[in-house]
Specification:
By secondary structure, the protein is of the alpha/beta class. 24% of the residues lie in helices and 27% in strands. Strands 1-2-3-4-5-6 form a six-stranded mixed sheet, covered by helices on one side. Strands 7-8-9-10-13-14 form a six-stranded mixed sheet. The structure holds zinc ion.
Length: 228
């Protein structure tokens, strides 16, 4: 599949247009919190054949512009089931993050998905891996080459686990499961550059505990939760 990244909004969030090359069927992954992504996608020529919207998690920078996108593309929208309690706080998140002017409506969710779910995009099968920790139900969408991870994992870092509704103990286990996927997978994060699972397992200072467990060279290490 082809993946185009659009970095939008005041949080510099990476949103993605994922296209199945065989059929042209496209999915939007995450939204930003403004109309910037709508404008960027509408400027594309040829126009993308948007067939679905996928959300990694319910933070305002990832889901806050859902209603803007749905006004333009009235397509099935997917959210991880366990993310609903956080998603439902979207109208309050602006205040929670100190920006009351940013209160956003929730928008419509058509499909709640759980670990192991498969979503068909043209001839591409996207699989869903639940990786809670940064939020109660954040998850990743992946095929045999690429994985879109939201704020689960960044190049050289991980998503914060000190927010309301975060749980560092869940993040420890989620990263363990994520890093069991093939190392060649290209990692497309919610913020920052593209990396690979193999590169992060080798050098990410937040994954020292996984290197220890596997008997790999220690590399840089930060203790960020009990046992890490
Ligand atoms: Zn987030």
């Amino acid at each position: 599949m082809n993946i185009q990244c659009f970095t939008v909004g005041m949080f510099g969030v990476n949103t993605y247009l994922v296209t199945d090359e065989a059929t042209g069927a496209a999915a939007i992954v995450d939204t930003g919190e403004t109309e910037e992504l709508v404008r960027a996608l509408k400027a594309l020529d040829p126009a993308p054949d948007v067939q679905m919207i996928l959300l990694t998690h319910g933070h305002i920078d990832h889901a806050g512009a859902l209603t803007f996108l749905q006004a333009e593309w009235d397509v099935p929208t997917y959210l991880p089931t366990a993310e609903k309690p956080l998603f439902d706080t979207l109208p309050m998140q602006g205040r929670m993050f100190g920006m009351p002017q940013l209160d956003r409506p929730c928008g419509r969710i058509d499909h709640f998905i759980d670990d192991g779910a498969e979503i068909q995009l043209g001839e591409t099968t996207l699989r869903f891996l639940s990786t809670p920790g940064h939020t109660p139900g954040q998850g990743c969408y992946f095929d045999d080459h690429d994985i879109i991870v939201g704020d689960t994992l960044f190049s050289g870092s991980i998503g914060r686990t000190d927010f309301p509704m975060s749980d560092p103990r869940l993040a420890v286990e989620s990263l363990r499961r994520l890093l069991e996927l093939p190392g060649h997978l290209r990692v497309h994060s919610g913020h920052g550059p593209v990396t690979t699972l193999a590169e992060e397992l080798r050098s990410n200072p937040f994954l020292g505990y996984l290197r220890r467990e596997r008997g790999l060279p220690a590399g840089p290490s930060i203790q960020w939760a009990p046992g890490t």
